[in-house]
Design goal:
The protein has 4 domains: 125 residues, 3-Layer(aba) Sandwich (Rossmann fold), CATH 3.40.50; 134 residues, Rossmann fold, CATH 3.40.50; 107 residues, ATPase, nucleotide binding domain (Nucleotidyltransferase, domain 5, 2-Layer Sandwich); 140 residues, ATPase, nucleotide binding domain (Nucleotidyltransferase, domain 5, 2-Layer Sandwich), CATH 3.30.420. Helices cover 42% and strands 16% of the residues. The longest helix is centred in the middle third of the chain and has 23 residues. The protein is an alpha/beta fold. 47% of the residues are buried. The two termini are 47 Å apart.
């Protein structure tokens, strides 16, 4: 825990050099908590997680001095609550303009003076020009050192190698570390407080004044406002060097739930389709990371594939291996409902396949499924040259040479089954995925629904239980409906209540099931629209056997998805194909 002499800040527009000139020891606060405490009561549930996390940190005594900036309504509400609670020794809300024009610079300079005077009154210290200049020199050198250390510069347009950028709302330290670890290239954090880098060469315009007069503060205000614009800034033309940087290989766009600003910036970011983009949303708690791991790994695989193609290395590793019929490769898809295995020979021919229910442990189920597939093909484990695992439990499977996300594997398998497919729809047990493919079968983009059970196989399983049916039974109903029932709720719990009410009204089973099929189809079609998917579609996974759902989805998409007899094994097939190429 820091001492009471640490002055915390949350925004890159905070005048750190000025505060350090006043003798303050400044530190950014960007910590993601495990959960929220009193803040839920004081701020309410519809406030972004960062505001709640920061309030809890203040109330628990971790923070004694704090400078806030008028980023949004959440921060203003936070400031009001902190003033009312009176737990901090020093609290200041700095009003930051939304532009960097002359009028905004003048106004911000006056704000800086008010902050300086407030901290002088609180601390009893006055600004030291020497300390101020030393802090400015330190900031000037930090950006260059950051670029040398990470392989990329935080200054847009000045990079020393390929890198990825995080944009959007602040990404906490824990999530950034997790994201950076998953990525195949260096990751630069350009969000909120982490993206603080003053413009290159800014010291050349330093006024000669020996005291903090209006000219010095106005110059400094202009320097702060000329940083890479955050998402709250109206004029974001300052991002052009970043988007035009040939070393920028992709963007991870992060936003916090209930954020009001991100949509404006995100619509701008999407106008650069040549830059791979992954959008993620969290509640700013550490538990969010587990839900995002598959998305991060899939995006990393997309970047890796793009980089390989850029350097003309795609497929070279596979060519080094002798491709003979007596070489065998296996793919294991460890799903939440079933564990699937596909075995290929060296020519790419499918010689073995199996599907078993996933039991209590992913590793045990994977071992059983692989052994069953080996018995059916009269092979031994030592006959398999390589094994690749994928799916929900891929990380738990020890008997594999590599794990690859189901996003990449379903794309690979679908392209193998039908190269014309441009959009893969996989309604899985825990989540639903829509994967957009390019002509070569590479992942061009994807969207996942993994925040709730709505629109997933789990949704159908719960509804089947409510109707006292099995999944196989519910998949055979809904084709001969007479009343076109609509299940209005997209929440699984509320939808279950609707089904109970329909049963009480003696509605026909086929009519209710048709309503459920429509609900899932509508949810899935929304994912397709978000992903920018277009026909030809292919539906993969076990839910592809549900004819009623397929019909409802066909109506929503205005195009019948391709259903292969290998639909449920598509992920395992893709994993086996990757095993053959390693």
């Amino acid at each position: 825990m820091e001492t009471e002499h640490t002055l915390y800040y949350i925004c890159k527009y905070t005048p750190l050099e000025l505060l350090e000139g006043l003798g303050a020891h400044t530190k950014a606060w960007n910590d993601m908590p495990a959960g929220f405490g009193r803040s839920e009561q004081l701020l309410g549930s519809n406030i972004c997680g960062f505001g709640k996390a920061l309030l809890d940190a203040c109330l628990s005594g971790q923070i004694h001095e704090l400078v806030l900036t008028s980023c949004c309504d959440t921060i203003r509400s936070l400031a009001d609550v902190l003033r009312a609670e009176g737990t901090l020794d020093f609290l200041y809300l700095l009003d930051v303009p939304h532009r960097e024009d002359d009028c905004s610079v003048d106004r911000f300079a006056r704000e800086l003076r008010r902050l300086m005077e407030a901290y002088e009154t609180y601390s009893g210290r006055i600004l030291s020009r020497e300390r101020f200049l030393a802090a400015l020199q330190k900031s000037n050198g930090a950006a260059a050192e950051n670029g040398r250390r990470e392989g990329c510069s935080a200054v847009p347009g000045q990079t020393s190698g390929p890198y990825l950028s995080v944009l959007g709302g602040r990404m906490g330290e824990q999530l950034f570390a997790q994201t950076a670890e998953a990525m195949p290239l260096p990751l630069a954090n350009h969000t909120c407080v982490a993206g603080r880098t003053l413009p290159a060469g800014f010291l050349s315009g330093l006024p000669a004044a020996a005291s903090p007069d209006d000219a010095l503060l106005r110059w400094y205000a202009g320097v702060l406002l000329r940083q890479l614009p955050c998402m709250r800034m109206v004029d974001r033309t300052g991002r052009k060097p970043l988007f035009n940087d040939p070393n920028l290989r992709g963007i991870v766009y992060h936003t916090i739930r209930f954020c009001d600003y991100y949509s404006f910036e995100y619509s701008e970011v999407k106008t650069h389709p040549d830059i791979p983009l992954l959008k993620i949303e969290t509640d700013y708690t550490r538990s969010s990371g587990g839900q995002l791991q598959t998305r991060l790994e899939a995006f990393a695989e997309e970047i890796q594939s793009t980089e390989s193609a850029r350097h003309h290395h795609a497929g070279q590793n596979a060519a080094h291996q002798p491709r003979t019929q007596t070489a065998y490769f296996a793919g294991i898809d460890s799903g939440s409902t079933s564990t699937d295995v596909v075995i290929l020979d060296g020519t790419g021919r499918i010689i073995g396949r199996t599907v078993i229910p996933t039991g209590a442990g992913a590793r045990i189920s994977a071992d059983k499924a692989l052994q069953q597939a080996l018995r059916e093909t009269n092979l031994r484990r030592e006959d398999i040259r390589r094994v690749v695992s994928t799916g929900y439990g891929r990380a738990a499977i020890q008997d594999s040479d590599q794990s690859i996300t189901e996003i990449t594997c379903h794309a690979k398998g679908a392209h193998f089954l039908d190269p014309s497919v441009r959009c893969v729809i996989d309604i899985g047990g825990q989540d639903s995925k829509v994967i957009v493919l390019d002509e070569s079968g590479q992942v061009a983009g994807f969207v996942m629904n993994d925040k709730c059970a709505a629109g997933t196989g789990r949704f159908l399983e719960m509804m089947a239980g409510t109707m006292e049916m099995s999944l196989d039974e519910i998949s055979r109903h809904g084709l001969k409906y007479r009343e076109d029932i609509t299940i209005s709720s997209t929440c699984t719990v509320f939808a279950e209540s609707e089904v109970v009410s329909l049963i009480a009204e003696n509605k026909d089973t086929d009519d209710i099931v048709h309503g459920l099929d429509k609900a899932v189809a509508s949810k899935t079609a929304s994912l397709v629209a978000r992903a920018g998917g277009s026909a030809p579609f292919m539906m993969t996974g076990g839910v592809a056997k549900n004819e009623g759902l397929v019909r409802a989805l066909t109506k929503e998409l205005k195009s019948a998805p391709i259903i292969s007899d290998m639909a449920q094994l598509c992920g395992a097939l893709g994993a086996a194909l990757y095993a053959a190429e390693l």
